[in-house]
Recover the amino acids of this structure.
């Protein structure tokens, strides 16, 4: 496809492993190159992007990268507000997905941090015993009082999170899932795939967590509403963690709040969303091992004709939208409120208050 397309070793000395990343975006322009470069570093070979209603050059930057044969960009097919699920339904029919060895469905603020081997997806697959699905546990990285948007890697700026085993008082934490080509797929979900409920036990997929252990049965069978997309996090991240940077800088959070998200158009992220992800009690620098390769790959992408200019335009439009929002009293009040908000999650704050420690 392209001289810049990485070729990762297949299993048992076979042909190169093809890994397709699928994602939905709306106004993520300043963050696209980092996410694409990072995923290329860890072994993603193909990208399928769906976009909708972009005003910050996201769609034009994706089109330019497509012109360089680095990804495939489609308009989101959703007719209503269910952008992500409609896109995933369409993705299941796309050649980049049907011909991939593995499919990785993730958002542009999620980074697969692999702790084994050469820190690539093939190494993770090998460490887990080459199952048919691998579900990797989230770790939510907080804002850490960083106010201004900076055009440099998010994974470098934000290094503090909750205790990785506990989030908002819950020991079960959500996952995202790598899916092998031969998974007995009924349909893709945003967090995990689903197989038919009538599938015989002997034909159920081999499915591990991020430590190579079999996932819990209730998660596997999706027969408990509270365990459809999560399971206990303790011990589940030995081989990989999914770093989630949902807040980023305060500037970027305000712009994100303005644009809504890919799941619910015009959704406003309220104070509880921020507080649940603002915990900075734990520092984790492990993803920094990727920074040299990430910087080099980002420079390779920017060297392609037209790419650097569109990236700069996206950053400028991001800043301009921030300025427009801060001219509104409501957004200034929101900014002041978030600056004053405790980093303790609400449930933890309530527990400490009950114990008389606040």
């Amino acid at each position: 496809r392209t001289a810049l397309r990485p070729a990762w070793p297949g299993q048992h000395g076979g042909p190169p492993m093809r890994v397709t990343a699928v994602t939905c975006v709306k106004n993520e322009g300043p963050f696209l190159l980092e996410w694409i470069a990072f995923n290329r570093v860890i072994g993603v070979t193909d990208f399928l992007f769906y976009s909708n209603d972009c005003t910050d050059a996201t769609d034009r930057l994706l089109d330019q990268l497509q012109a360089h044969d680095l990804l495939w960009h489609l308009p989101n097919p959703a007719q209503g507000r269910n952008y992500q699920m409609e896109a995933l339904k369409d993705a299941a029919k796309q050649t980049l997905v049907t011909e991939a060895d593995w499919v990785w469905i993730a958002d542009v603020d999620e980074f697969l941090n692999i702790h084994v081997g050469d820190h690539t997806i093939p190494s993770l697959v090998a460490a887990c015993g080459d199952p048919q699905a691998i579900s990797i546990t989230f770790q939510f990285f907080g804002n850490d009082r960083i106010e201004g948007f900076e055009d440099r890697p998010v994974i470098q700026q934000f290094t503090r999170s909750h205790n990785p085993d506990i989030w908002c008082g819950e020991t079960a934490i959500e996952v995202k899932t790598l899916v092998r080509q031969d998974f007995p797929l009924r349909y893709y979900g945003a967090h995990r795939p689903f197989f038919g409920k009538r599938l015989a036990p002997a034909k159920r997929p081999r499915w591990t967590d991020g430590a190579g252990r079999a996932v819990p049965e209730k998660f596997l069978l999706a027969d408990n509403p509270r365990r459809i997309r999560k399971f206990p996090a303790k011990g589940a991240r030995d081989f990989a963690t999914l770093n989630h940077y949902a807040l980023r800088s305060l500037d970027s959070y305000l712009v994100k709040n303005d644009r809504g998200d890919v799941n619910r158009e015009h959704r406003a992220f309220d104070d509880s969303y921020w507080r649940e992800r603002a915990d900075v009690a734990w520092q984790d620098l492990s993803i920094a091992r990727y920074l040299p390769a990430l910087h080099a790959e980002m420079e390779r992408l920017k060297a392609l004709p037209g790419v650097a200019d569109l990236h700069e335009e996206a950053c400028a439009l991001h800043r301009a939208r921030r300025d427009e929002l801060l001219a509104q009293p409501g957004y200034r009040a929101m900014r002041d409120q978030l600056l004053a908000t405790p980093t303790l999650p609400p449930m933890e704050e309530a527990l400490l208050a009950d114990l008389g420690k606040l």
About this structure: The longest strand covers residues 172-180. Residues 208 and 266 are 36 Å apart (CA to CA). Residues 261-269 have pLDDT under 50 and may be disordered.
